[in-house]
Amino acid sequence: MTTEAGLDVAKLQRRTIVTLVIAQAFGGAGVSVGISVATLLAERILGSSDLAGVPQTAQVLGSAVVAFLLARIMTTRGRRPGLALGFALGAVGAVVCVLSGFLSSFVLLLLGATLFGSATAANNQSRYAATDLAAPNKRATALSLVVWASTVGAVLGPNLLGPADRLTMSMGAPEFVGPFVLGAIGATLAAIVFLVRLRPDPLLVARQVASVDPRIRPNSSIRHVYRVVASRPRATVAVLAIALAHTVMVSVMVMTPLHLHHGGAGLEVIGFVISVHIVGMFAFAPLMGIAADRLGRLPLIGLGSAILLASVVLSGLAPAGPSVGLTVGLFLLGLGWSCCMVASSALLTDSVPLEDRPTVQGASDLAVGCAAAFGAAGAGLIVGTWGYATLNVAAGFLAAATGLLLLFARRSSDPSRS
């Protein structure tokens, strides 16, 4: 298929996927290091773990708010400027986090973490760019390839925690700021890749192919997005499934470094366990995409819910410090999240019209981020008061609720594929 301007859509889709894969490799490294050490830096600055989860909450909230703002930019101007801006803001946030370590300022850490969430927002929104030009029966596969691309940087990043920290400390920097230097570099490189290579813009080309009148300005208000989602039951299920699964993943994952640290684990061990978790999140995503396209979106969401339940059981039973049970539990936590994220994202894209997709996708990430922020904040309080095992019990209820959504989805009359 070619556009009126003579563009080969299939060729452009391949170029788009390659560009997204390259950017995700860099961006994934940047995002993962911030997730791994934010709680540790907060504990060092405060001298207590009671509020150690707050910077992660700020990062998640920043990601949520920025996701919708980026979506509004992409609605009118395309994917390229929105994704590049998100990673650029994330790089600035990582630099502010470095400054917070030097100044022992918790306020600066919160500001930096909030801005750093922009990189997470761009990282998440990238997956939807892969679906703009994809055939309907290949959307989940295309989306999953971008999710999978995060594996390289996201696995490499946590394993560089120790070396990066030692290198910066040898230069006189305080503990736990080195990984944020890596985060700034990764986010900057991702922004550059988008600016240089994401041309022509896949979203704008998709609108040309669909003969959408460019003179009509899409409605990007929250009220309109709510009406679109509320009128489509399976879109509602998709948003709720992503939100619940992501909250389970974030709440358990964000407190795991502290659980390991309190048991005597060093940064190398913490980085390894987080890397195993990230392998579960991203490495098998293409298989999830193929399964979602061939077997349907809903069965994969159900499988993800079951895997999440198994993960919190193993993690909750694990003692403080490194253990096989905790490592396997964190791997399954990532794998269950992967099932739900790929299938639900594809289901959401299937369920809404082309002209509304960017803002609905952004609003979905806003809702997901707010739910996860609540989970991250609650996780710190739960662990500080009742312990890590209790946190996993609470997460187990959310994982079960994800599976129960399927009962509602199967009764809906949405024309979107199940």
UniProtKB/TrEMBL annotation:
Topology of the protein relative to the lipid bilayer: Multi-pass membrane protein
Major facilitator superfamily (MFS) profile domain mapped to chain residues: 16-413
Gene3D superfamilies: MFS general substrate transporter like domains (1.20.1250.20)
SUPFAM superfamilies in alphabetical order: MFS general substrate transporter (SSF103473)
Membrane-spanning segments: 17-41, 53-71, 83-116, 176-198, 237-258, 270-291, 298-318, 324-348, 360-383, 389-409
Keywords: Membrane, Transmembrane, Transmembrane helix
Lineage: superkingdom: Bacteria
InterPro entries: MFS (IPR011701), MFS_dom (IPR020846), MFS_trans_sf (IPR036259)
Localisation per UniProt entry: Cell membrane
Keyword Transmembrane: yes
Transmembrane helix listed as a keyword: yes
Major subcellular location class: membrane
PROSITE patterns referenced in this protein's UniProt entry, alphabetically: MFS
Pfam family for this entry, one: MFS_1
PANTHER family found in the cross-reference section: MAJOR FACILITATOR SUPERFAMILY PROTEIN, MFS PERMEASE
Name of this protein: MFS transporter
